[in-house]
């Protein structure tokens, strides 16, 4: 009977692990490799050694770390038996990497935004003059805020932590839906406690992070992007007006050029809108669904839904720097040239072998 109970407890947990790794491992591998390609492209081109690319390089490093931590993020919403110090580590470290990634993304957008809004004063911009201080500002505050639970702002002494992985809601022995370990079947390690996000992050901490850090950062990125598109629209109108005046003086028409400019601008708006929707909307949905569930009084939940939302939400957001990097040919030229050389060398080898035959 005990073996049957153990098997019934292990099977759903193994399926959860398979689902997590089936989604996160390919996505994490793609994010890591793409970041390495762009980092290599920036490192091999000395013309890119300037402040804007240093900021973007910092963003790529944060995105690379997020890709490494991605397989572990879905486990944060599942209960498991760990010592409290280990529980703090597995919750604080991914949270720090994520916040650092978000801060780096904001400063990259802000730097490019100021380049377009104020191009004449761009070189004397304070971000360029205080470059090391800005880098410290995008890495140190996330670390300090994420570490607050380790300094005492946690819920370790809260009620209801005894046996949260060992007992279900009815009090009978069994594994809850959101318990990720085989506590019902295998004895927990000596000295371990029930590791839950509720023990590490108090409600006030979650509210402050979501609505005090994440929401303003996302809104600021959306606002700067919209402002840049509006400025681009105004500049395009000025260019079209100049084309009309030149065409009128020359006796011709500039309608074809205007149509090309309008089409190019429409494509730009469509690309930016689709990128924003694809990268941010899944994460926004994930955040609000998780806040609704994580801050609810219920301890049980659909672990499959949490796993899918967390993987797609964090993964889609981590793709944003890759879209910015791969769209710049300067970042990918060294890797492209290397691939061309390898392809030409392989073709020459094939030709020489054919001639020998």
Describe the structure.
Residues 34-324 form the G-protein coupled receptors family 1 profile domain. InterPro entries: GPCR_Rhodpsn (IPR000276), GPCR_Rhodpsn_7TM (IPR017452). Keywords: Cell membrane, Disulfide bond, G-protein coupled receptor, Glycoprotein, Membrane, Receptor, Transducer, Transmembrane, Transmembrane helix. Pfam families: 7tm_1. The structure is a single chain. Mean pLDDT is 77; it is low at 1-10, 166-177 and 181-188. α1 runs parallel beside α9. The protein has a two-stranded antiparallel ribbon with strand order 1-2. It has helices spanning 2-43, 51-69, 84-117, 126-129, 131-146, 197-200, 203-250, 255-294, 303-318, 320-326, 329-356, and strands at residues 80-82, 193-195. It is globular. The protein is built from 11 helices and 2 strands, in the order ααβαααβαααααα. 72% of the residues lie in helices and 2% in strands. With 357 residues, the protein is an all-alpha fold.
Brief summary:
The chain is an all-alpha fold and 357 residues long. Helices cover 72% and strands 2% of the residues. It is built from eleven helices and two strands; from the N terminus they run H-H-E-H-H-H-E-H-H-H-H-H-H.
């Amino acid at each position: 009977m005990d073996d049957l109970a153990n098997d019934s407890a292990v099977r759903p947990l193994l399926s959860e692990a398979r689902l997590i790794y089936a989604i996160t491992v390919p996505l994490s591998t793609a994010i890591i490799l793409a970041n390495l390609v762009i980092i290599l492209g920036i490192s091999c081109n000395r013309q890119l050694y300037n402040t804007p690319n240093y900021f973007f390089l910092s963003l790529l490093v944060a995105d690379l770390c997020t890709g490494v931590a991605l397989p572990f993020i879905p486990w944060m919403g599942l209960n498991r038996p760990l010592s409290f110090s280990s529980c703090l580590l597995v919750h604080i470290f991914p949270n720090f990497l994520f916040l650092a990634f978000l801060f780096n993304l904001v400063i990259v957008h802000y730097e490019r935004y100021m380049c377009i809004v104020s191009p004449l004063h761009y070189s004397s911009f304070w971000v360029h003059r205080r470059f090391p201080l800005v880098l410290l500002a995008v890495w140190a505050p996330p670390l300090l805020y994420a570490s607050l639970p380790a300094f005492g702002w946690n819920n370790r002494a809260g009620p209801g932590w005894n046996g949260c992985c060992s007992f279900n809601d009815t009090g009978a022995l069994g594994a809850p839906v959101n318990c990720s370990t085989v506590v019902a079947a295998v004895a927990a390690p000596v000295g371990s406690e029930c590791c839950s996000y509720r023990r590490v992050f108090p409600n006030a901490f979650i509210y402050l992070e979501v609505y005090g850090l994440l929401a303003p950062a996302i809104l600021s990125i959306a606002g700067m992007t919209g402002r840049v598109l509006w400025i681009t629209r105004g500049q395009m109108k000025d260019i079209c007006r100049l084309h009309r005046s030149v065409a009128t003086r020359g006796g011709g028409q500039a309608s074809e050029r205007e149509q090309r400019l309008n089409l190019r601008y429409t494509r730009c708006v469509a690309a930016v809108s689709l990128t924003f929707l694809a990268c941010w909307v899944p994460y926004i949905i994930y955040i609000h669904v998780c806040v609704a569930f994580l801050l609810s009084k219920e301890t049980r939940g659909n672990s499959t839904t949490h796993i899918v939302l967390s993987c797609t939400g964090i993964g889609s957001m981590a793709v944003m720097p890759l879209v910015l990097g791969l769209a710049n040919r300067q970042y990918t030229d060294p890797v492209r040239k290397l691939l061309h050389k390898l392809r030409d060398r392989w073709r020459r080898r094939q030709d020489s072998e054919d001639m020998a035959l």
